[in-house]
Amino acid sequence: MRRAELRERLAALYAGRPVVLAPGGAAGWASWVERLDRLGCRTLVLDPPVPATVLATDGFRLHDRLVRDLRPDAVAAVERFDPEGRGLFRTSPFVTSDEPVLGRPVTGGRPRAFLALEDKLRADAVWAAAGIAAAPSRVVPLEEDALAAATRELAGPLGAVWSGDGFTGGGDYVRWVLDRDDRAKARAFFAPRSERVRVMPFLDGVPCSIHGFVLPDGTAVLRPVEIAVLRDRAARTFAYAGLGTGWDPAPDDREHLRDVARRVGEHLRAAHGYRGAFGVDGVLTADGFRPTELNTRMSAGCTLLAGVDPDFFQLLQANLLVGIDAGVTVAEVEGYLPDMDVERRSTTDRRLRPGERLAALAEDERLEAAPDPRA
């Protein structure tokens, strides 16, 4: 009964109000259209034209401008749909929520300050402040000598990894560097896109993530998620093959991962007034988990776990981001952990069993997956 009561309380943010969904086409908003329909909401989906981009990140960085620079016909459609101006915008997490759009509050987006925390070059300061062990790294300008020196200093047996500045998605601002030729190609890639890059050793192990929700009474932490990444050493490329929860780290590693998320969440709350979902990506190495990036949003891994009760988690996130305390506690969110451990999920069409690694299945089937911009 308590879960049903909480869902009803969380639904009050939207219940009965007109909701504009943007940016993106109807297919991408299908689950939200169905959810809002159950809440008695009329919906309007706007699909502003997105300039062609090669990388997912470049598209994400356009989202805020797209919803704030709507064409006259789109503006007119919104005003016809919601003539009384009592509606809401439901957007992607790459839209800022500090100011309304067409006089209507933004839900689903993030405050600028939360979005800024996702800058990949800020992650090391977060690990240090939260007291988390991390691999060595250097942030250097995009200058050949500085990059070469940092790479020589930090490269391990598998080389180094460079990451560009700003917020990114899908790992598309990440490059694997083993030799001089790799350095030249990576620098040419970053030159028009980044002013600085972070250099780290290539971490060998299981790519994974751990997710949590910063709530008024503390940080609720979920279970680990495997990030299935295939590597091609000859081509020096990575192939994203999906996310899965079949993989189980050793119990001590699981609890360490969860402790990492709890420490990060509490730091974000204390230092930045943070609220809502976040995720820590990294690699479980022979020496333990080493974080690589912070995602201050409900990312793909968190969404996968939320599949045990999508309405609860999606509405919880929407409420937290607009500053509403619906009375959900850490214990109530973590009460879903047994369900997450029973219902093993993946972003592919595979049904996973406990202990089953998605990356191993992909390798066995010689899956040549292209990087997925929705990762």
Explain the overall architecture:
This protein is of the alpha+beta class and 375 residues long. It has three domains: 2-109; 119-130 and 203-375, ATP-grasp fold, B domain (D-amino Acid Aminotransferase, Chain A, domain 1, 2-Layer Sandwich); 136-202, Dna Ligase, domain 1. It is built from 15 helices and 14 strands. A hairpin with a 2-residue loop joins strand 13 and strand 14. The two termini are 34 Å apart. 44% of the residues are buried. Residues 345-375 are annotated as: Disordered. This is ATP-grasp domain-containing protein. Residues 124-321 form the ATP-grasp domain. InterPro entries: ATP-grasp.
Question: In a few lines, what is going on in this structure?
Answer:
By secondary structure, the protein is an alpha+beta fold. It has 15 helices and 14 strands.
